[in-house]
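From the methods appendix. Each design record in this collection lists the discretized structure first, followed by the designed amino acid sequence. Records were kept in a plain field format so they could be parsed without special tools. The example shown here is representative of the layout used throughout.

RECORD:
C-ALPHA CELLS (356 positions):
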C-alpha cells in the first residue's frame, strides 16, 4: 500500500516525509528534489507494543506502509503543469493522496503564488486532478466511439461503457470528483483500471505554526478529513533519541507524534486493518484489507496455514488485555473458534490451528 504526499512547492512535504521516515528508522537519499522519494515506514500500534511486553519475543514486527514524497506542483504556468503531468502516473499507482498545504507564516520561505492560502491550494490541486481525469475519460470516450463503428466487438458492452463515461464527463465538468458519479460496485469495477485521481481517498495536512496547533483544531477542511501539524516540529522530534522524544511529547501532553498519527490515519484511510499474532518467537501485526476472511488472512502468514486451515482461535485485543493473557481470556469466555469465512476484525489476536 502506498501513500503519496503532494502539494505546491515549499509546503513542507519533504520535511514531513523525512520526519516520518527517520522516526521509522529508514534513511532516504534526498539529493534530488525534482524526483519522488520513497520510504517504508512502520505503522505505530500500541496493541503490538503491549503484546510484545507480555511475550517478550525474540522479534517484534509491525505493519508497514510506503510513503512517496512527490516534487511540488507549480501550477502557475504551462511549463509547471506539464512537469506535474509526468508525476500523475506515480499518483495513480498510489492508494491514497495526502495534500500537504502551507499554513505556516515564515518570510524566509518563498510563498507559492505570493500568498498563504491553504483553502485555495487544496482547491487548485483538486481541480488539477479533475482535469487529469477528464483528459483520460475524454480519450476513452473517443476510443469507444471509434470501436462502435467497427464491425467487431460487443456493441452492448461498448454502449454501456459509453453511458458511464458520458456521465463521468458531466460530473467532472461540474468540477465534482469521479467518486460522486459512481453508483454501484459494478461501476466501481468498470473504472478500476483507470485509477482515477479524483477517486482516491484524500487526507489534508495543514502544515501550521506551532502556536496554531491545538486540541480544538477541526478534523475536516474543505469537506475532507484533515490534520493540523507542524512539519518543522516533527522534524525536530525525529532527530531526538527515542527516550527523549517520549519525554518531549509527555511535556506537551501528547501520546504520540503527529507523524505517527498521520501514518495511522493513512493506514485506516486506505481501508487497511491489522490482526495480530503472538508468541515467544515473534509478535507481529499483519496487514489485510477490511473485509478479509480468516482463511485469506491465514494466507498472508503462509499458504500452508490457509491450505490446512482448521480453525482460527480468535480473541479481540481489548478482551485479551482485560483477561491478562490467553488463559484469562479463555476463562472469561472471550476466545472464539472461528471458521474460514469469519471476517477478521481490526485488532483480532489470532492463533491459527492448521494441519498439512
Ligand atoms: N516555519 C516553518 N517552516 C517550514 C515548515 N515545514 C517546512 N518548512 C520550511 O519550508 C521550506 C520548504 O520545505 P520542504 O519540506 O522542502 O517543502 P516541499 O517543497 O513541500 O518538499 C524549508 O525551508 C523548510 O524548512 C514548518 O512547519 N514551519
Ligand atoms: Mg520536496
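DESIGN:
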Amino acid at each position: 500500500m502506498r501513500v503519496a504526499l503532494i502539494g505546491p512547492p515549499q509546503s513542507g512535504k519533504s520535511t514531513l516525509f523525512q520526519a516520518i521516515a527517520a522516526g521509522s528508522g529508514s534513511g532516504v537519499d534526498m539529493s534530488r528534489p525534482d524526483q519522488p522519494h520513497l520510504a517504508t515506514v512502520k505503522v505505530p500500534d500500541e496493541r503490538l507494543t503491549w503484546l510484545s511486553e507480555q511475550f517478550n519475543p525474540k522479534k517484534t514486527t509491525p505493519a508497514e506502509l510506503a510513503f512517496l514524497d512527490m516534487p511540488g506542483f507549480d501550477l502557475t504556468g504551462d511549463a509547471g503543469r506539464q512537469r506535474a503531468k509526468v508525476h500523475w502516473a506515480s499518483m495513480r499507482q498510489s492508494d491514497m493522496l495526502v495534500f500537504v498545504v502551507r499554513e505556516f507564516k515564515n518570510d524566509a520561505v518563498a510563498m507559492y503564488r505570493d500568498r498563504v492560502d491553504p483553502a485555495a491550494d487544496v482547491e487548485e490541486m483538486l481541480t488539477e486532478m479533475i482535469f487529469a481525469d477528464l483528459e483520460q475519460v475524454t480519450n476513452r470516450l473517443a476510443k469507444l466511439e471509434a470501436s462502435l463503428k467497427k464491425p467487431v466487438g460487443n456493441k452492448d458492452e461498448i454502449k454501456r461503457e459509453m453511458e458511464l463515461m458520458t456521465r463521468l464527463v458531466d460530473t467532472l465538468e461540474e468540477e465534482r470528483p469521479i467518486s460522486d458519479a459512481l453508483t454501484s460496485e459494478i461501476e466501481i469495477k468498470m473504472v478500476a483500471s483507470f485509477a482515477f485521481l479524483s477517486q482516491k481517498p484524500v487526507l489534508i495536512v495543514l502544515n501550521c505554526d506551532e502556536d496554531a496547533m491545538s486540541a480544538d483544531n477541526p478534523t475536516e477542511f474543505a469537506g475532507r478529513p484533515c490534520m493540523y501539524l507542524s512539519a518543522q516540529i516533527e522534524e525536530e522530534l525525529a532527530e531526538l533519541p527515542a527516550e527523549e522524544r517520549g519525554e518531549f511529547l509527555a511535556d506537551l501532553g501528547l501520546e504520540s507524534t503527529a507523524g505517527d498519527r498521520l501514518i495511522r490515519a493513512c493506514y485506516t484511510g486506505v481501508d487497511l486493518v491489522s490482526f495480530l499474532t503472538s508468541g515467544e518467537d515473534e509478535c507481529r501485526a499483519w496487514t489485510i484489507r477490511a473485509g478479509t476472511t480468516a482463511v485469506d488472512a491465514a494466507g498472508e502468514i503462509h499458504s500452508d496455514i490457509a491450505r490446512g486451515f482448521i480453525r482460527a482461535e480468535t480473541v479481540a485485543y481489548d478482551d485479551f488485555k482485560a483477561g491478562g493473557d490467553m488463559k484469562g481470556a479463555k476463562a472469561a469466555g472471550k476466545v472464539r473458534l472461528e471458521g474460514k469465512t469469519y471476517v477478521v476484525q481490526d485488532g483480532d489476536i489470532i492463533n491459527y490451528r492448521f494441519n498439512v
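APPENDIX NOTE: The first strand starts at residue 2 and ends at 6.
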